Amino acid sequence: MLLLTVVYNRSMEYINDEIKKIKKCLEDKKNIIGISESILEDTHFIKFFCSNDNLSESSIKTFNLNVANMLYKIVTTEFCKKEINNFLADTYFFLQYDEIKQVKPKIQEALLSEGSISGPNMVYCINRKNKIIDKITKCIEENNEINISGFLTFRTKELNGDLECIVDKVVEEYMVEKEYNEFIKLLKYFVEVQDSKIDEVNILVGKDGNYYLRDKDGNDLVEDMIMELSDVKFDSKESQEELIISTMITSAPKKIIIHCVEYCKNKELIQTISKVFVGRVEYCDSCVECEKIKNGMAILK
Question: Cα separation of 263 and 203, whole Å?
Fold first, then answer.
């Protein structure tokens, strides 16, 4: 039973490896696939056969999905070779050469979705990739022969729109990260140019995620600041975290001990403190105060 014929030219020799992967994947699933290859001048013809004329619908879908993934990889490879530089130059002309050099590997990773899922942007990229694969799968289902050169010629414009959306998300994330790093650099400068007003700050994180700041003698460090800023409300978790950062920056402590960090619900806060106060941060989960937190005992104001 002939499943599909794939046609491509000699310049796409890397397709051979992808075809071998398809065959191995289907053989592992007990779907025996035969491959016949013929060459006419510079054109390769690959025919996929199955020994079973009554191949199940799920097996056919598996085969089509594997071919669609192969075509997706080809589309993204060609996009990265021929289109991405022009797209970045036209759309993100404000990016410097070094910035483009940094962001391009991130784009390629996102296009292939080979990295670990690291947040909503990566989830968005994977969803976009699946949308493209669905379009390719429908094309395969409607044809018993796929000419890859023709596919790229007539389908590239449509698919590139989705690929460009992925690029936009990656660049957006890169710019946010860049701004964050510049913010961290500025905070580090503020800390480094001023004298420390306190030797040690203890940040205690309660089981409920609330924060408590103490000096080495157990005195509350936040209360005085709240009294100084009596017109400002600190009733939300976000405002509490902003107050902690403000307190730390203005006091520039020589040492910071974070207790029960596992209860912190905003890991970015801990990350920010660690990056701003390089070499000054320690973690504790076994002192008397930590044991009180773990045992659910109230942290005294």
Answer: 12
Question: Does the reported pTM lie above 0.85?
Answer: no
E strands, 51-208, are 145-147, 200-205
Please answer whether residues 135 and 159 qualify as being in contact, where contact means their C-beta atoms are separated by less than 8 angstroms: yes
CA 154 to the chain's CA centroid: 31
CB neighbourhood size of 108 (10 A):
17
Residue 105 tokens read as: 């590997």
CA distance 68 to 72: 6
Specify whether the CB–CB gap between 52 and 43 falls below 8 A: no
Beta bridge partners of 2: 49
> Strand ranges (DSSP E) for the chain?
2-9, 33-40, 43-50, 145-147, 200-205, 211-215, 255-259, 281-284
Average pLDDT across the chain, whole number: 83
Indicate the DSSP class of residue 262. G
Pairing status of strand 281-284 against strand 43-50: unpaired
How do residues 245-298 score in pLDDT, each as one tens digit? Answer: 888 888 899 999 999 999 998 888 999 999 999 999 999 998 999 999 988 876
Helices 57-82 and 148-193 cross at an angle (nearest 10°) of 60
HSE (side-chain half, CA atoms, 13 Å) at 13? 3
Q: Is the distance from CB of 259 to CB of 203 less than 8 angstroms?
A: yes
Q: State pLDDT tens for residues 121-140.
A: 778 888 888 899 999 999 88
Could you write out the three-class secondary structure of 218-243?
Answer: CCECHHHHHHHCCCCCCCCHHHHHHH
